[in-house]
TrEMBL record, chain A:
Keyword Oxidoreductase: no
Record bears the keyword Acyltransferase: yes
InterPro entries (alphabetical): Beta-ketoacyl_synthase, Ketoacyl_synth_C, Ketoacyl_synth_N, PKS_Beta-ketoAc_synthase_dom, Thiolase-like
CDD domains (alphabetical): CLF
Source organism of this protein record: Streptomyces lavendulae subsp. lavendulae
Gene Ontology terms, MF aspect: 3-oxoacyl-[acyl-carrier-protein] synthase activity
Protein name per Swiss-Prot or TrEMBL: Actinorhodin polyketide putative beta-ketoacyl synthase 2
Gene Ontology BP annotations: fatty acid biosynthetic process
Domain of life, source organism: Bacteria
The enzyme's E.C. designation: 2.3.1.-
Gene3D superfamilies tied to this protein: 3.40.47.10
Top class in the EC scheme: transferase
TrEMBL record, chain B:
EC main group: transferase
This protein's name: Actinorhodin polyketide putative beta-ketoacyl synthase 1
Pfam families: ketoacyl-synt, Ketoacyl-synt_C
Organism: Streptomyces lavendulae subsp. lavendulae
NCBIfam families per the UniProt record, alphabetical: PRK07314.1
UniProt-listed Enzyme Commission number(s): 2.3.1.-
MF (Gene Ontology): 3-oxoacyl-[acyl-carrier-protein] synthase activity
Domain of life: Bacteria
Cellular component, GO, one term: cytosol
Keywords annotated in UniProt: Acyltransferase, Plasmid, Transferase
All copies of domain Ketosynthase family 3 (KS3), residue ranges: 2-416
GO BP term (any one): fatty acid elongation
Family membership: Belongs to the thiolase-like superfamily. Beta-ketoacyl-ACP synthases family.
Amino acid sequence: MSARILVTGIGVAAPSGLGVEDFWSVTRIGKNAIGPVTRFDASAYPSRLAGEIHGFEPKEHLPGRLVPQTDRVTQLALVAADCAFADAGIEPGTIDPYAMGVVTAAGAGGFEFAENELRKLWSEGAKHVSAYQSFAWFYAVNSGQISIRNGLRGPAGVVISDQAGGLDALAQARRQLRKGSKLIATGGFDAPICSLGWASHLHGGLMSTSDEPERAYLPFDDAAAGYVPGEGGAMLILEDEDSARDRGARTVYGEFAGYGATLDPKPGSGREPGLRRAIDVALTDAACHPAEVDVVFADGAATPRLDREEAEAITAVFGPRAVPVTVPKTMTGRINSGGAPIDVVSAVLSMREGLIPPTTNVELSDAYDLDLVAVRPRTASVRTALVLARGRGGFNSAVVVRAVD
Amino acid sequence: MTRRVVITGIGVLAPGGIGTTAFWNLLSSGRTATRGITLFDPAPFRSRVAAEVDFHPERHGLTSLEVRRMDRAAQFGVVATREALADSGLDLAAFDPYRIGIAMGTGVGAISGLDTAYRVASDEGRIAQVDHMYAPGHLYDHFVPSSFATEVAWAVGAEGPSTVVSTGCTSGIDSVAHAVDLIREGSADIMITGATDAPISPLTLACFDAIKATTALNEEPETASRPFDATRKGFVLGEGAAAFVLEELGAARRRGAHVYAEIAGYASRSSAFHMTGLRPDGREMAEAITVALDEARLDPGDLDYVNAHGSGTRQNDLHETAAYKLALGPHAHRTPVSSVKSMIGHSLGSVGSMEIAASVLAMEHHVVPPTANLRTPDPECDLDYVPLVARDHRTDAVLTVSSGFGGFQSAMVLARPDRRTA
């Protein structure tokens, strides 16, 4: 029996709040953070809403020299990591640097930065491209910058599995802990709100074209007609139990108890989607009976086919209306690799407070046999939570987090 | 007892020839595949040399739909995967699809596709924001390269745990290590892994020009990649893919598979120092090597060959040489060390997997590939870098390393499963 893997620090950069307490004070009451795009002129595009983080001034949080060499996604990741380390109470020099590492999930990389450099390349010429472009945009930049800023000289990892990657990163962090690391900072971030990012999202044909912030992203609703992209993410400090105890970790938010992942079959194969299997694997991995699960943080794709698949998987595992289901992403939009780590943070905060944050704006469709925590939060004892994430291309991941006494 | 994971299938798509046989022919002959860039007009750039793959997707079984859907790098990955699967002799239809997983590496994903998309949809920067109506289809799949894992999964019928690993220039080792972990922990029985990159694009050239990382030896393209040589001028960009079929040793033996090598040890460490700079002492790379050898239960003296990162920048060559001396002690001077980047260039994320393939083929043939173009040894690099000519050499255990932006250092030990262990 391997040692338990504990969540001992959290940091959040979300449209609904920068910093854990700001984020939770908004999330717990179900306040919408989706609004018109302001980071570029979206008026000419068919979709014009996003979950943006307003009022974020990187210079208030980061050394001045770091700002011009980093994309917004990296700035958000660095700030959330700072918060998570501070929250965990890690004193510099107390843990062997080779025993500390970082695993992040990436989605698009630093593409706002890259788009600016592409503009210079094609309109002004090759000599105008920034030297920082060589590392500011690529998918590993967040793990690299976080390791440098926090002196993490152990393993570094980066996974990309679209929206599911945010959970896959946590699972990879657990593997590194089981192989001997003492502490891994892990999470995921995305910030695709630039014109090239927008064109990319639009090409999937899955974005909402609504202009009403409270009617645009409606998973499990009869009016579900696509998603709204958001920006941000969350960082968690994971430690193995012995190491956390040895250093006297002051807060234990919960245990990372189980994980499962699958990929959907190629379209047209006639085989069942993989989500139910991913949930089964995660529950088995956590030695957890479905009846022990107190809440499911669903993926909430908000396209009818994907909603139906997810509702069917949840019902198949738990039974009809047998477990509360919520999608707090309705407040922030879908943040690719950042979305699921934020949900894991919400899950451990639900345990702390005994409150399930709501799925805002949604009226549950009669087509789904779900107990959806719609519109208003619900008071409930939460000991075990299941977090689901599904990515474009068929990725399904499930994580079980459990309260620790 | 930990499950032991072995390579039973290899596919390579490299500059100089497509397929594993062509790859080994190039490496063992000491020829180079670097040349003046032909994929686009390189005139505006400081560095105009690269190792390109002559690739016609339709000749390798990709359908029109697949060509339209995938970026060049994804196409490379699928073609290499199909070769690896055929080489393994496995009939995946006989396996539970949930027990087959994917871990594909890439350093820069579909950067070439994104560069082209931007160029078109912004009308070469004439309009400030891209016009989505002119962006190519499947742009999202270029933007978020997890699509590479999906494409490979669809090509082989996998439905188990699947992801893309993207740790920059160590991606090609780290993806294979990720696949090993999934088999060892019991999450999968078969893993399709490897890495792919097609980074030769105007944006890549421009940013490496800006930091003078790539060579300026434009007049001598065939000899432009010169790791460990005093006349080096930076690395030569490459492209390509390598793919592997991994399975558990016992299962491979029971079905009578050809076992190329066990992936016996691995570690990654970070220098936590600078995004592009390296600490000269090589300590993090040395630490990764030591931990990888421990995991393989081998001593430095058991290594028959070191497949170097050898990118051909002075910073790297000194860093790496120092790391070998730290980690291997006196054996650093006794073990042949070579860089195949001298022949195939540096394809960023995928080259680590191509170097695993080179290492395994060295074991297969008991031939160590050379460091091409090494005619003027750098006095500060004083190991046996196997200059110019391949060497017949009994090879049962190999160390391969990658070093990359972000400060990441990865080391992997490949060995015959029946080796003696420490």
